[in-house]
Amino acid sequence: MPKELKLEIKPQNFSTFILKSILSILLILFLAFILFAIITPNLNGNYTLPLKIIGVLFILILVTQFIFSPTIYLYSIRISETTTELKWQKNGKYKYQKFNNAQITTEIVPSGKNNPYLKLEIKDKDSQLILKQHRIGEWTFDKLKKTDNDIDKYKAQHISKK
To answer: What percent of the chain has pLDDT over 70?
Structure first.
């Protein structure tokens, strides 16, 4: 039986992720603008209103994308008999938390169409942390499922020993 469960992944380069997200949002809004300009021919070449609407939509999408639903990227999970250490990035900022005698709950949660995420809930007597790891970078669906299974197996072995 392993004394420790480790998951180490190279941290994500969030600059390229954010750039790709911004470019995809811009492309969608540009296509919406073209469609809007084609559908409303009575604008007589005055596209300032559609441009203002597109600008406001772009800002709203960015705010909701990166502030209200932050991107989490777990890159280190270490679980031993007494301590649990997590390292993750939240919108590119590095975070770390250590738990003593933690209770760990994992679950693959369906989200949207074919976009499940790994919900990782860790509690100890002093604190509680809930992280939602979506598919990004090295986190494929198989990696989410394997991590969920590995943590469940480790917990089952650890609990059965006591």
So the answer is: 83
